[in-house]
Specification:
alpha/beta, Rossmann fold, binds 5-O-phosphono-beta-D-ribofuranosylamine
């Protein structure tokens, strides 16, 4: 069966991109990354894509006078590569409503918290401040409102005594590297459908839970 054609948008180091590249390299994985696009020319993730032999494109946001023309340039690259699903993997630009609607239910993001808690930035600092005992990450379909949209996969990690934002963030990042490839697999296998504003996932269990302090 044809593999799902995936485009990944990045802005930086690309460790989640790496997790997706590694997953796609597994025999029988139902998706392939056909283009990696960065708004930052120096993003290390571009190097990871090159290493994996995946075509890259740089669309520097500073070259565009408004968000609509920047998003249009991104869309051109995605269409050129015949992308069917877009993964946001540490892409640090807000996309226009128009772009988000054009890619409705074909655009997924990974966020470093258990949504709907801690939308936005500095999630690990805020989780520590709030004193939550469980934290994690979420892969979700993107909607115009930031960090909203049907939840596909979540992975939970414990908050341990003495955690810093850095140690907690590292634990969440490991969980991200499992959750994102899992979500991609589920979508590519046709096991995810959107019903209203909820994603219905045909999998047991629907998500992953990593409440193991050693994880
Ligand atoms: C991750 O924590 C992701 O959840 C957030 O941005 C970070 C990107 O890290 N959206 P990387 O570039 O994938 O290493």
């Amino acid at each position: 069966m044809a593999r799902l054609r995936v485009g990944v948008l990045i802005s930086g180091r690309g460790s989640n991109l790496q997790a997706l590249l590694d997953a796609c390299a597994l025999p029988g994985f139902p998706a392939e990354i056909v283009v990696v696009i960065s708004n930052e020319p120096e993003a290390f993730g571009l190097e990871r894509a090159r290493q994996a032999g995946v075509p890259t494109a740089v669309v520097p946001h500073r070259d565009f006078s408004d968000r609509a023309s920047f998003d249009a340039a991104i869309a051109t690259e995605l269409h050129r590569a015949k992308v069917e699903l877009v993964c946001l993997a540490g892409f640090m630009r807000l996309l226009t409503d128009r772009f988000v609607e054009d890619w409705r239910d074909r655009l997924v993001n990974i966020h470093p918290s258990l949504l709907p808690a801690f939308k936005g930035l500095h999630t690990h600092e805020r989780a520590l401040q709030a004193g939550v005992k469980i934290h994690g990450c979420t892969v979700h379909f993107v909607r115009p409102a930031m960090d909203e949209g049907p939840i596909i996969v979540q992975a939970a990690v414990p908050v341990l005594p003495g955690d810093s934002a850095q140690s907690l963030g590292a634990r969440v990042l490991e969980a991200e590297h499992r959750a994102f490839p899992l979500a991609l697999r589920l979508i590519a296998e046709g096991r995810v459908r959107v019903d209203g504003e909820r994603a219905v996932v045909d999998a047991e269990p629907a998500g992953v839970t990593l409440l193991n302090p050693e994880a």
